[in-house]
Write the structure tokens for this entry.
Amino acid sequence: MYLLVSCDRCRSAQLLEMHLGLEEADDILERVWPEVTGGSLSGSIPSAVAREMREAHACFKAKLYTATAVMVRRTLEGMCADQGTTPRKPLFKGLEELRDTGKIEGRLFDWAQALRVIGNQGAHFSTEPVSREDAEDALALAEAVLDYIYVFTSQYDEFQKRRAARSTKAPQPTT
């Protein structure tokens, strides 16, 4: 079933498709027009890693949720390789290495591990497919991990350098 609606904020028209589930709570509304594009990735993310993430978005758009999970896992593997983790280590060990070297921490490590588990669910046969919600969460969390590694870390480092340079140039108080 399709619905033509108007956005309350911007008053633009949108076409929604309703996917009916077995229960009313399982019904999903998805915008089909104007086209929803995948998340915009920072230019700071290496092209090979960004390519995997774009493919994950393409899988999601095609409603291939298991394939989305696999592509998110490949994205994490590419990030680990780019960050210099020991080659040929399982993804679990690569993520631990990023944590142990201080490149990711706490909750971010937990997120990355959760993404790895969803990726495993997609990569290995199971009678339970990856759900739309898990695939959507995997995309959002993977983007957060990539932003942390490639965007926020470099922005923070630049901020620290600027602050350090200013403090060395500032006149020292006399006593």
About this structure: The mean pLDDT is 86. The first helix runs from residue 47 to 61.
